[in-house]
Amino acid sequence: MDATEFRRRGKEMVDLIADYLENIEQRTVYPDVEPGYLRSLIPEEAPEEPDTYEDVVKDIERVIMPGVTHWHSPYFYAYFPTANSFPAMLADMLSGAIGCIGFSWAASPACTELETVMMDWLGKMLKLPEDFIAGTHGQGGGVIQGTASEATLVALLAARCRAVRMILASDPQRPETGITSKLVAYSSDQAHCSVERAGMIAGVRMKKIPTEQSDKYAVQGETLRRMIQEDKAAGLIPFYFCATLGTTPSCAFDHITELGHVSGPALYVSKIWMHIDAAYAGSSFICPEFRPLLNGIEFADSFNFNAHKWLLVNFDCSTMWVKKRSDLIGAFKMDPLYLKHDHQDVHSVCSTNPNPLIPLCLILSPTLPHPTAPSTSPYRTLSPPVPHTTSQHWQIPLGRRFRSLKMWFVFRMYGLKGLQDYIRKHVELAKEFESLVRADQRFEISADVVLGLVCFRLKGSNEVNETLLKRINNGRKIHLVPCLLSGQFVLRFALCARTTESRHIREAWQLITQLAEEVMQELPH
Amino acid sequence: MDATEFRRRGKEMVDLIADYLENIEQRTVYPDVEPGYLRSLIPEEAPEEPDTYEDVVKDIERVIMPGVTHWHSPYFYAYFPTANSFPAMLADMLSGAIGCIGFSWAASPACTELETVMMDWLGKMLKLPEDFIAGTHGQGGGVIQGTASEATLVALLAARCRAVRMILASDPQRPETGITSKLVAYSSDQAHCSVERAGMIAGVRMKKIPTEQSDKYAVQGETLRRMIQEDKAAGLIPFYFCATLGTTPSCAFDHITELGHVSGPALYVSKIWMHIDAAYAGSSFICPEFRPLLNGIEFADSFNFNAHKWLLVNFDCSTMWVKKRSDLIGAFKMDPLYLKHDHQDVHSVCSTNPNPLIPLCLILSPTLPHPTAPSTSPYRTLSPPVPHTTSQHWQIPLGRRFRSLKMWFVFRMYGLKGLQDYIRKHVELAKEFESLVRADQRFEISADVVLGLVCFRLKGSNEVNETLLKRINNGRKIHLVPCLLSGQFVLRFALCARTTESRHIREAWQLITQLAEEVMQELPH
């Protein structure tokens, strides 16, 4: 396919996409296929000779669409939203065409620089403390990660490195393995499963802090304080706490001011790193009325949310800020001798990196002179972190797309007001759904409705609610997923699609009540 | 922007992209900007009210393009290629519009299933042993990772988990920290820096195996064997070896058959996991004449290359296969009680996962009943891995785009033959460049030219070569990066753009020789 054919096929694809999104309501939101459905629909091997483009396009409806869960249907209320906007799609097309791999400033200066400035724009929209803004001289700043899971892990790795270094600084004779095996991290029992998984990857203990319905599933400062004290008494070293703003099950909010007072003070051998995961809720903080939920951010070392969830910037765009870039840079830094040579030898190619938050992959570094004796410790061999050198890796992948173009297009085409309107519309629709539930005596609301998520259930057994949900999803007209809150099976109704309107909410509610009636008639109470 | 406006703007963007790529030769390949250039060109904050689309588009030329390194210019010979093809761009547009997040089968069955089948297609194109093909009953299979760095890390984490479990199985009383602190991994001193970084992230020793110019920078079996023996004698536990096929500096190849005999036998307490990183070279193995470079793959536990480098599938698409899915699944698995409940409770929502290689994020799992007492060990609390259950996480991020659409479009629109032709054309052009260099007595070739990379230098000092490279890049007509091989400063000429032709090679060579003449006249020998 050459550029001439691409002009034609690209325009057809634009129409196909517009048709798909304009008519998405008419599709079954949740696909009716069995596992393994696709394999039998296509050949077992790639073709030797090219297929025609017409055949490929035909197969979109024949092979792909029957197995698609339509996340952007206004009848999709499962999980949390993922963004889908036209400006973001246009920017992504451009990003694909430029197709640079932004692992260093030199690899495409615009890619690194636009990201730094867009993260500042967004940080200002969120009214983040000055500490988190890179500006031209700040010590903090933002970077785009792929997902919140990556951000949680990166923060944990940086915290691990900082803790080990602080302890080694005060007690240089202490064996390192004796330190890492004593480290302990904390998160809410409501935290996303990726937080626990980050602990597994980093090889450190991760303790779950129990929460209660009566506390609205928020971690209590007193509980955290007690756990820390007990662990300290048992000889462990608390070093990391992941707070959640807007949990996955019920959109609960930890009180980070209270928790900051627990984790902040230098009562402990190593200061505790507070990371804030606001994956879903973070977008709402651009509205002044929701910004108080972020109060206490000044106690955090790092903060992350997924602009690709609720801020109209298509996946992936997980926005992360840190207060001190050097904390992160240090965690991924190599042997200083090796570094020194890198800097010296590739200076002409790589130049200076204006944003140390962007990983600068010196892909040629393995060939630079270094001692053949391996460094066996990532901690002892490190010099103190130096910002603005050429080797600041601090994300898991080294390659990266030109993702900030999506932020730039979206912020400019919506404007701050347009984005705020969008958030508010979803919250209003959630409130509307909440009032429909509350008006029906057979149902109950299971958690405060703060943003765009409504947790509700039939008054009665878990069984009746499980049956109801199964009936809803098997009907395939709307799609919801459940959660368990304090042992109760709960239905989650999350506002997801950009195009959801009041009529969709009412239609969904009508369907739910109709199915509830059937279920209640069938099942014994 | 609504669908109607998107139809118009999308078509304009298609033309903009086609114009950009058709005329890319006329742009300066390597941008002439200073660090920080972009910040002053745009406002300090996002606009309150929307900008016009015309203004946004105008800014592409005003703000972005001056800072872009044009990776797809036929004058770009730096790093390694990154893919850029029209079919991949069309597929990516569709992927963006569908915009599903494929963290589970249910979240979009087509996304999970097409990926499994496309990885089988590609595995067959590479003639991978049957062990690595998922098929309908295989124990192995493939998955798309974001980058080779992620694949290296995932393999390392799986190896760490397997080693600890094997040792615990034979010696249950042994303290775990005593195991992990003794683990030792190996890679070539020519390996990509991300391998060393994976060791830092996982918190294990990573030793570099020295290589020699006389061995063509390949790791020698004898060297690896000796290091393993010495480490064992010192009480360490060798558990992971990362072989490289096509190193970043000089495209050198480890002899994996020889190394497999070293790392394979169960001579050691824990079997050594062999991971093969063929990030760049892997694409060439679809040609029968290059496939022998992969001989010995049967000894590997995991294998990875970047289809997004040289196989015309736009970034990101890093293709990874494993022989035993259960090894990977186990590495990210949670507490079995918790798992059991997940499986039970969300079965109706998530159904069975036909491909355990695709991470199934039970985003609701944290709310399911589990003991509040935290599990402190990822190893002891695990039951033996069970394939085909609903909780097989095995990549770092949980969310994922519908990336297999790009593979599907590219494989079908090029056909296997078209892809082979493309690889062969680049190799031929590299050979042509090599012969130009060899015909000039002032220059020398620094490493065997096997695929699309030519390492060369002026006979003489490092200084003269550094000066030459600086002159080349400052001229901005072509773009190259250097490497050091055995202490010698070497210029790397990598075939990168899809549209590079013989005339570009000759033009580049003419420029290089002209600048070399200048440099040699200026500098004292």
Q: In CATH's first tier, which class of the domain at 123-333 in chain A applies?
A: Alpha Beta
Oligomer: homodimer
Q: CATH superfamily of the domain at 123-333 in chain A, called what?
A: Type I PLP-dependent aspartate aminotransferase-like (Major domain)
Which architecture of the domain at 123-333 in chain A would the CATH scheme give at its second level?
Answer: 3-Layer(aba) Sandwich
Helix content of chain A: 40-55%
Can you tell me the residue ranges of chain A where pLDDT is under 50 for at least 5 consecutive residues?
334-393
Largest sheet strand order of chain A = 1-7-6-5-4-2-3
Could you tell me the CATH topology label of the domain at 123-333 in chain A: Aspartate Aminotransferase, domain 2
The major β-sheet of chain A equals: 7 strands, mixed
Q: Secondary-structure element order of chain A, as H and E?
A: HHHHEHHEHEHEHEEHEHHHHEEHEEH
What integer is the average pLDDT of chain A?
A: 86
Q: Biggest protein-protein interface?
A: A-B, 177 and 178 residues
Cα-atom Rg of chain A, whole angstroms?
25 Å
Shape of chain A: globular
